[in-house]
Write a sequence for this structure.
């Protein structure tokens, strides 16, 4: 594999992992909220992971444009 292809695959894997983590965090936030618990830490982590995911989408787009 070429370095560019390896990098694109690595970004795609990180995107999939981030999307899965976001799904888990959303479930946790909903569960904690429905239980009446403090969900602020889970919400902050969700915002951070969502921001990271956005950055990964940008990197992926840049790599596609430069290929």
């Amino acid at each position: 594999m070429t370095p560019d292809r390896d990098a694109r695959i690595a970004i795609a894997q990180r995107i999939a992992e981030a999307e899965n983590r976001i799904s888990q965090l959303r479930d946790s936030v909903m569960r904690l909220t429905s239980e009446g618990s403090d969900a602020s830490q889970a919400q902050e982590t969700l915002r951070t992971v969502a921001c990271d995911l956005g950055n990964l989408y940008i990197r992926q787009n840049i790599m596609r444009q430069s290929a």
Summary: The helical segments are 3-35, 40-66. The chain has a mean pLDDT of 94. The chain has two helices and no strands. Residues 3-66 form one domain.
